[in-house]
């Protein structure tokens, strides 16, 4: 949690060409010369928007937690889930007597008051059970009171908050009275909490705390734990939990925070890999929530609004079931100027009406919406429950795009201009959708604005995005959409090798005409590549690239030529050959949170010696690198790594091995490579 607490940014991010540094007033915005190309591809389906998507945090130190004015503002912004009792306070809070020893509890913030606010907003609660100073019995009593005594039907319960911050990894901000502060002990007690709480109400969902891939303490093993925090927790408690809870404060300047949103696809991919690897059978039932999000620069000005809309969209399109802003009210921090606006360093999305200690600077009146509140309101206009995200992309890093397709055939597009200095003209291309000639409904949030401006104007294919702005377009389709077949069901992959995979899916329900065939499309950025078509509900895809990640959708086409929505996405990764003339064993050890000691062992499986060798691989992301190496010559250009021998290990005897080591570094989720070539031959991996 942040109240108002900062944590050092531990990771290097991708720097944007233009920065928005606090304390610098930008010049008047001018239009960039070349139009940005935006591509929206409705054939490339992503996740569906759940009814828990848009969330916020409420805290027991906030005197306004239960006021009608606060609740009505949250309702108007479209809030669907509210988290209580407030970050790290959860690990000192005792709900029965409404106390938090060592912290401040405001009047009018007890659990019943919170639930009254939840109901007034029309949201669902997410409740944090006290792990740090509580017990499984206390948590079970809370479930009994909430759902049996009061009938609140509170579904979502998390065991603790940021419990890896209990000192186990060296940094301590989270209360933890247990003598054993290991990840192993947390996991064991999560099992006890889940058992006790579900004994009262088996229908609840119990969540456990994970750390964000690529962020401290991800990758670090401490004490006698069998592995890092996430691995340890999932290996022990995975079968007992229903979701995992992650927080993300990307840190850095406004430009750096906005750039790091591109970490999200790889972060969620790694989280699902960890779930599949460690959490036991049926791990795909385990959901992912991100319940604390905020920035370090521009917390209540336009950078936060841009970040909120961009990160909520990025998480939801990757299947996260809820995203929460920290916080509703929080209080004054350091006052700066950001992009020409006064920023109060306040993590809240509504003003607390506070002043600096000397009274020289005061916030606007209580409950005045800050920029992130308007960013959340923009999300309400953009992504509604039941909409399906579809792939959208641009050719300009300072402009990002997201899109959703609605059940009535409409398409909504969210455009984020992260450039504080320049307007950007854009041209928008649509694949699988033809917009009506009717002017779209356009909603815009500009830098310093006190609200969103909505009109029906302009073109569906071109417009200019103001500097530092959010723009949403809602478009009607050009033709009728009735009678199309339903989208095929969730595809699955089987028989995945280095070069092929078999994709299978539940059949589509016909609309006005019988189903003629199914088309399998691969997402390649915002462009779809058709891999094949079939009249059946299974298709084997060949000619795949070893060690590559693929996301595919299936579409149904009927005999009248009508095409369904895209199926839910399927992501799978090809591996290395089962057998080859070489084997590579890649290792990553002694991880310290943004680097590790890496190694490669090359085995000659052939019957003849190898005289001179070159090993190559490609990093899966742009923020991974070889910092230094030994026992070989190491080179990296872009994401491509090239390793060549020294005079001492040029030859690899038949059946022999050579080894070399390196220091690896990463500035985001560390997705390890899985395909290696030796002298142009793809090796097996061991």
Automatic annotation (TrEMBL):
Record carries keyword Hydrolase: yes
Keyword Magnesium (UniProt): no
Domain of life: Bacteria
Organism (species): Micromonospora noduli
Name of this protein: Mannan endo-1,4-beta-mannosidase
Segments forming domain CBM2: 575-686
PROSITE patterns, alphabetized: CBM2, FN3
Pfam families: CBM_2 (PF00553), fn3 (PF00041)
SUPFAM superfamilies according to UniProt: (Trans)glycosidases, Carbohydrate-binding domain, Fibronectin type III, Glycosyl hydrolase domain
Entry keywords, A to Z: Carbohydrate metabolism, Glycosidase, Hydrolase, Polysaccharide degradation, Signal
Fibronectin type-III domain mapped to chain residues: 487-577
Gene3D superfamilies named among the record's database cross-references: 2.60.40.290, Glycosidases, Golgi alpha-mannosidase II, Immunoglobulins
Entry's transmembrane regions: none
Signal peptide: 1-22
